[in-house]
Specification:
Layout: H1 9-18, E1 34-35, E2 42-43, E3 56-60, E4 73-80, E5 92-93, H2 98-104, E6 108-113, H3 124-128, H4 172-187, H5 195-201, E7 204-214, H6 216-226, E8 251-255, H7 293-299, E9 315-319, E10 328-331, E11 342-345, H8 360-368, E12 373-377, H9 380-384, E13 392-393, H10 398-418, E14 424-426, E15 432-437, E16 450-455, E17 460-470, E18 474-479, E19 485-487, H11 489-492, E20 493-495, E21 498-505, E22 510-518, E23 524-533, E24 537-544, E25 551-557, E26 562-571, E27 590-596, E28 609-611, E29 617-624, E30 629-637, E31 639-642, E32 645-648, E33 651-660, E34 667-669
Parallel strand pairs: 4-6, 4-7, 7-8, 8-9, 9-12, 12-13, 14-16, 15-34
Antiparallel strand pairs: 1-5, 2-3, 3-6, 10-11, 15-23, 16-22, 17-21, 17-23, 18-19, 18-22, 20-21, 24-33, 25-30, 26-29, 26-33, 27-30, 28-29, 31-32
Helix pairs in contact: 4-6
Length: 671
Amino acid sequence: MGGHTGRAWSSIARAVVMAGLLLGVAGPASAQIYESANGEPWDYVVAPLTPHCVQTYRVFMPPEPHVMPEGGWPVMVQLRVSGFSTTDDVPLIPPNNFLGQVLEQGIAVVVARGTISRTHDDPLWLEYCEVAPSFPGHGLFHPPGFVPPDLVGQGPDGTDIVPYDEPAYAMAEKDAVLLIQHVRHLARGAGDLSDEQQQVMALLDHERIAVHGRSAGAIAFMWPALGPDRRGDAFIAGFGGQYDEPTRPDIAVLLGGPVWWPLFSGDLGPGVPHFGLGGHSEIAAPTMGDALLEELVPASALAYEDAALNAILPLYMSYGELSASEDYGKNISATCSPQPFCFDDQGFDGVPPYGIHAAWNGYTWKTLHPQNTRVAITSEIAYQQAGGVDVVPFFGDEAQRDVDIVEWLAEQFDALLVGPEPAIASVVLGNKVAGAVPAAEAAPDADAPVLAFEAAAGTRLSLRCVRKGGELQPTLRLIAPDGGELVSAVDSVSSPKAARIAPFSLPDSGSYRVEVGDASGTGGDFRLTTKAKQPKLAKQVVIVGLDDGSEVASFEGVAGARVKRILVRGIKPPKGFPDIVADQAADLFPTALSIVGPDEASIDLTDLVTTSKSGRRVVVDGFELPSTGTWSIRVGGAEVFGDGESVESVGYARVAVKVLPVKGKTLVELP
């Protein structure tokens, strides 16, 4: 991470401030009223698409004393659209409201107006446009290209409206896609705005973009945030420029949006955007388990169950309404044709009298994707329905919840500066590992999944990684304890579906890492098999007693391995070794003096050492190694008597260490 590396952004920032583009009333931040840069709303849709009269936005920059980070200001983009029908301009931000708190955290803010989702002759258009636009703004794209009954024949010249795929038609969901692309493109220093506007936008960090929306705004942002990258969608495909930018944000705050979006009903009537009201919602689910997720998820055409699911997105959700979900039944019948499915019985989540922002959506997403999700609940009754799901209560206190959002947002932006933590699993050689590599478009800055394992020098290691889902082309990279690369990802590739590291002797004892990558960039599931032939017996001959000293033998071991036995024997001079000339001793009566490992870890030998009757052999009983590395056995010579005097015996000792290696036998699933 690092954003605009190599560019003189700090000098641009000073120039912009001096030019008066970053406006605000003088005084401390707590008393400031924030005005937008340049004072007028900007358009965010550029050629070849046609701007709509409400497709505008304003830019607000953090106040002093905040200093712009090297990569540019992190930015939160808010889409203002309510009920897919109304929107308003925001020329000023008070200091104490939610947006003011965001600015005071050193986060820039873009406030955009979204296109309303109504027919082109709806009076609401005239509320925000001088004249009625020549194109409508329906957001009925579920599934994309479907023509709802009330839009048949409603297009120009009596044609049907296919609202999402056609570039001519505006809608909030397209606005969400275009807005992310627009901000990211201009933050790179590109774009078609005026010089002054481009200077302002170039101060933003294109790698730290968060989105914020509530209700319809949340639903609109879910389209680019939680699904696949949308830059290849028909309405912008091939246009180039900003339309080639990734559409997924880096962080999302989505308040009140349904996760498993309500399905269309065959009874959908005019003027009801997005929400089909067929089915019943008479019974509130007392717990999460009563909602029957396994039935609901596959029933929804927007369940995001494809490989492009953006589950790694840092996501803040908030709800304050009860769940109206208990018994979902999947009904494939003519009653909901031409939609793929509709619900029977207790129907679908969140319709009157319970509301359309049911807390069940947050429980659902948090349960399925707990690692990156924070869910806030502002209703005590809705909180009681969570059924053990980890959510944060703010009963009736949305102001305190907003403080929580701002603090969480700042933490997520800070985390992006150092990059996301890799998925790390500590495994034992012999384990199998199941995991997934995210698609490059979904997580361009995510680290590869990492396995960490302890191994002793001399271990013969082999690894094989096989694709189990998606179009993954696995690669393997082996990293030594000192951080050096032993086997590169390129060297490990053996076929499009599998990668392997052939039997490889590990040079050192310590903690090794294996990184699982993807040569295709599309991501997918994998299964990694680890195998190792670990040293079981170490033998060494040492000369003890010369120069009145002891001698050290060594062996390599792994934490948790059991040393079955250490045998130290006095022996005759091995063939090829010189005889030892000693004044007082002809051979050795060995003793085991100490066993010391890495970081001065030692083994208490008090109850472990046994000496044979002859004194020629010493046995150290079994014990477990507390750490990985080189272990030293100090061997001395027992006293012998001659001429009334005692001296340390001198001679050769053979030291044999038998180790029972740690062996993994289970399947480890990466988080």
